[in-house]
Amino acid sequence: MNLSKHGKEEITKENPKQFLFFTSQNIFDFTYYSKFMKFIYLLLLIAATITAKAQEAMLYNPNANAAKEIAAAVKKAKSSNKYVLIQGGGNWCKWCIEFARFAKANAGIDSVLNSSFVWYHLNYSKENENKVMFAKLGYPQRFGYPVFVVLNEKGERIHTQNSEYLENGKGGYDQRKVQSFLENWSPRVLAPAIWGDK
After folding, report:
1. Residue 90 and residue 21 share a domain
2. I want to staple 161 with a disulfide (CB 3.0 to 4.6 A). Which of 110, 115, 147, 148 is the partner?
3. Which residues constitute the domain of residue 115?
4. Whole-model pTM?
5. Could you tell me the end-to-end alpha-carbon distance of the chain, in angstroms, rounded to an integer?
6. Alpha-helical regions (H) of the chain
7. Hey, which residues does 122 pair with through a beta bridge?
8. How far is CA 17 from the centre of its chain?
9. What is the pLDDT of residues 28-46, one digit of tens each?
10. Same domain for 91 and 38?
11. Where a domain ends, among 57, 87, 107?
12. Is 3 helix (H, G, I), strand (E, B) or coil?
């Protein structure tokens, strides 16, 4: 063991344990502190990545009772003067996952979603195709995934949106197109009073 003039162990090739362990004697040494903080940062980064992946994987629930949950969404929408936005797709669909990420990352779009819609993810996968519910919604899957269906406060389908028309042609979604779609099918814009009707 090599000691410095202050009696502390020096970092040497012969003493590799210093790179791996932190004790009360060396924790305040800058070299050890720096390595310790990098180690903690790495652990936090790994934990955040795992959490994000887990959340993405749970976007759609194949075991959900779609009819019951959509009915609850309609009830919630009615009580809060909103519509229901159904996003059909699955955890296997990268465009479905990307839309959720894109919408939450964009303040304007996230604001419209939260203020105007109850957002529900309707699963389609080999585990559960939800054939009955997709049929009830007018077979929106004909447009591919994700596909969006807007229900009014009575649970009536008032619009089906092909997500292809919301893309930017560069492998992502277009902010203006998505925001326009959401705003033009929001209850505020479709209120008869806005158009001079009683």
Report:
1. no
2. 148
3. 66-189
4. 0.71
5. 89
6. 30-57, 66-79, 94-105, 107-116, 131-136, 175-184
7. 88
8. 42
9. 556 666 777 787 888 888 8
10. no
11. 57
12. strand
